[in-house]
Amino acid sequence: MRPGGPRVQRDPHRPVGAVSRRPCLRCVPVLRPARRVPTTARAVAHAGVHLRGLRAHRRGDAGDGLALVRGPWSGGRVRILVAPQEFKGSLTAAEAAAAIARGLARAAAEAGTAVEVDLLPFADGGPGTASVVSNALGGRTVSVRATGPLGASVDAEYALIEGAPGEGPLAVIDSAAACGLVLIPGAQRDPLAASSAGVGTLILDAIARGARRIVLGVGGTATNDGGAGIAQTLGLRLFDAAGDVLPGGPIHLVRLSRIERGDALPAIELRIAVDVRNALLGPEGAVAIYGAQKGVRDWQAPAIEAALARWAERLHADLGLDVASMPGAGAGGGLACGLIAAVPGARIEPGAALVGGVVGLRARIEAADLVITGEGTLDAQTAYGKAVAHVAATAAEAGRPCLAVAGQIEARPPSIADAEAATPDRASREATRHDPTPTVEAAAGRLLRRWLAR
Q1: pTM for this structure?
Q2: Whole-angstrom distance, CA of residue 154 vs CA of residue 170
Q3: CATH number of 129-352
């Protein structure tokens, strides 16, 4: 870190042709269309243009290119919108979109079908939300040293988007940047001790830089502390019956006896973008549904559930907050609960709908003939307000068919007409563990060929 504070960089992934506008998440930002590239899929496949994220770079390898098309579509071509979220642990949303588009270009060329592809990497409050929103609104990246989920320091980044003159910047933060599951190797995961405290550091840094509007995505965390760590960083004091301050980690919440507010934060608007709508407690709650992926063992689950129940009980008794009944309060291991406790007026919003409004998802879908989305695993959790479900539902509302590419397919929502797995079995997953891109490209090609042949 440079002397004098955190390092600030310009975002290297600002989309082609994007115009920086006043950041308003209540309306769809206006983006100037990038240079249109009218070409058939066969021409695309030999054009030598390679997309990395949302930028086009010249590349010498023939047959590994595609065209980025934005703005009005040309007539006589199949117009395809590619809008995947991240493939957790393997591909970012931008990488997944580019891989899918390459596969589509090759399949369309083989079929002699002309296509135009519009890339729209998507997010829903999980990892990558800050990048997607920043790309749409023209932000810059701020790097901050924060406490990681198990106490070690991490370099965490968030997006800062300048407002109109006289208006403070908008901050967009991924909780996973400071307490993400990807920050802890599987063998080291400790759900009884993992804390969200570092996310509070990012919020305080954004406030110090003048941000009074903050969007915070809560997905992809390694924590089940109900956001208590964040709340403590932001000024709430948690005491046990002896009057001692509780340490971090969810297991200590079972001893929580009293909550007190500390120094008040500046007035801010905090929008909590959740990627699921699960409650905090119960059979559909944070521990029951998502605990296992964070390393919670069967014998640990009742203890963490009891600790979160105690946290909810004291929030209601001491602060008058009924977090136990709030839809989405279980997202991110209950992160929203601590945020609502520490920041008056903070509200939970479906992350996919929030991001969709920002990037103009509905308009992009209406401009397409076919929509292809994707994620790492299509399963029962997909229907819980996640990006793929939102893209598919919006496509259905617009009367457009929606297909999906996924690493694995365990369940397919009714709004997705067809889906293709990139790595359907363990052998294929192991073979592509270090580079899943070719299998995603191949799956997209198979999916389009099947759709064209229907």
Answers
A1: 0.76
A2: 23
A3: 3.90.1510.10
